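Subject: Protein record for review, amino acid sequence with backbone structure tokens
Why sent: The fold of this protein is of interest and is recorded here as tokens.
Notation: Tokens come from a learned vocabulary of local backbone shapes, not from coordinates.
Attached in line: The record itself begins immediately under this heading.
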Amino acid sequence: MKINVVGTSGSGKSTLAKQFADALNAPCVLLDQLFWRANWQGTPDDEFFVALEKALAASSEGWVLDGNFDRTRHIKWRDVDMVVWIDYPFWRVFSQALTRAVKRIISKEELWPDTGNR
């Protein structure tokens, strides 16, 4: 099964995508991890699209993809079986995003470590 989890930033896309991936024993591909470089520098589209193609091609059996990035729709939805749209109320998403940000500030957690997907 090939699933794309989409929704507002802070809505829980990554958490849900990882849970689906674990349940399906499938790889979880995080678009933010493919796109963002050190110091919040984005990856140019030509490189980003190649990295996404490579990550999705790595498992023809299935994958769970976390992220929106509308400009990647022609790649990610070409073979997708299901799109899961998380649509929580504003205050829930805001509180989740705020809590996540505070935890990351305190822990100095690296958001998207390089996993060799690029």
